[in-house]
Amino acid sequence: xxxxxxxxxxxxxxxxxxxxxxxxxxxxxxxxxxxxxxxxxxxxxxxxxxxxxxxxxxxxxxxxxxxxxxxxxxxxxxxxxxxxxxxxxxxxxxxxxxxxxxxxxxxxxxxxxxxxxxxxxxxxxxxxxxxxxxxxxxxxxxxxxxxxxxxxxxxxxxxxxxxxxxxxxxxxxxxxxxxxxxxxxxxxxxxxxxxxxxxxxxxxxxxxxxxxxxxxxxxxxxxxxxxxxxxxxxxxxxxxxxxxxxxxx
Length: 249
Description:
With 249 residues, the chain is α/β, with parallel strands linked by helices. Helix content is 50%, strand content 13%. The protein has a seven-stranded parallel beta sheet with strand order 3-2-1-4-5-6-7, with helices on both faces. Helix 4 (93-121) links the parallel strand 4 and strand 5. Helix 1 crosses helix 7 (198-209) and helix 4 (93-121) packs parallel to helix 5 (142-164). The relative contact order is 0.13.
């Protein structure tokens, strides 16, 4: 299989690349930091192509698609994204809009472009990396939580559309809790809960994707949190989430 991974230079994206390379897949790795991509390529086996590109702009998303569309991509993994911590009235709007561009517009654009091709040939996989945050409102990380809610709900809606037309194309959402990656440094937070390793999350995600899992939630504790969020009153859930977030300072 030929697999395209965005945000591949670190964290879950890097771990996905390492695991999939060991499984014998050809990879196209996309990220802004070329040096990190080149270093990663040296660690991997097989046919590896790297593309250094800032895909937070729609124009660059189109450019990326046009560069690879003839290569018959089998799997698209929308992994690129970042978070931001702070009170909504205090966080910088330019940073938030950059986050919306990358976490929402990029995922939206690449999903649409590749999905059309996948539907035509009636095969292909799209894995959108969201977060357990996508099922919650997130005081102190409000914009980030909102972006991941978009990703989750977009993915679920498309999945139902595919089901209704009898398509064999897969789409699903990876929704991890705390993961030990560079995300924490970028968002300027420190998790008090035990974090999963990105290697574990990557391997778990791919195995569940190939089993056609709709929502992929690695880790027992995160699964429990997900199910509790379905039964706890919204007002109480918001207070609990705030307290958890506040401890990340």
